[in-house]
Design a protein that fits this description.
By secondary structure, the protein is α+β, with helices and mostly antiparallel strands. It has a single domain, classed as Nuclear Transport Factor 2, Chain: A, CATH 3.10.450. The chain is built from 3 helices and 6 strands. A hairpin with a 2-residue loop joins strand 3 (about 65-80) and strand 4. The radius of gyration is 14 Å and the shape is globular. The model has no long low-confidence stretch (mean pLDDT about 85).
Length: about 130
């Protein structure tokens, strides 16, 4: 993979988390493919297609009060117009008044559509806290 392709994909991953940290749902939505499938610690299951994702993002916008994410241990693989990124998200957020701090192994699969990377698969489920 070229250094330019690697940097482009790393920037895309960072841009997604920056938009979410700012609670910028409109910008986040522009980075999503219409056939996105996602699983996260909030839904605790799969959300499929842009309509379900839009509903989930709208719910987050109304209930997510603060959010801060750091991407750790990022590794990227690229196969032309498809790429996968694996990493750990260190995240703090307040949702519906309840504060959470989580570490979540995460996978993002991206596809280039009309020259731009779009997220097609997002899987980020927090690990249980160790006592």
């Amino acid at each position: 993979m070229s250094e330019q392709a690697l940097k482009e994909i790393e920037t895309f991953v960072d841009d997604v988390y920056t938009a979410m940290s700012r609670l910028d749902i409109a910008t986040t939505a522009k980075m999503l493919s219409a056939d996105l499938q996602a699983a996260d610690g909030v839904t605790r299951g799969w959300t499929r297609g842009i309509d379900e994702i839009a509903e989930h993002l709208a719910n987050l916008e109304n209930s997510l009060e603060t959010e801060k994410s750091r991407v750790l241990d990022l590794t990227v693989r690229n196969w032309g117009d498809t790429a996968a990124a694996t990493f750990v998200v260190d995240q703090e957020y307040t949702i519906s008044g309840v504060r959470h701090q989580v570490l979540a192994p995460t996978t993002m699969v991206m596809r280039r559509e009309d020259g731009e990377w779009k997220l097609v698969l997002f899987h980020s489920v927090p690990l249980p806290t160790q006592e």
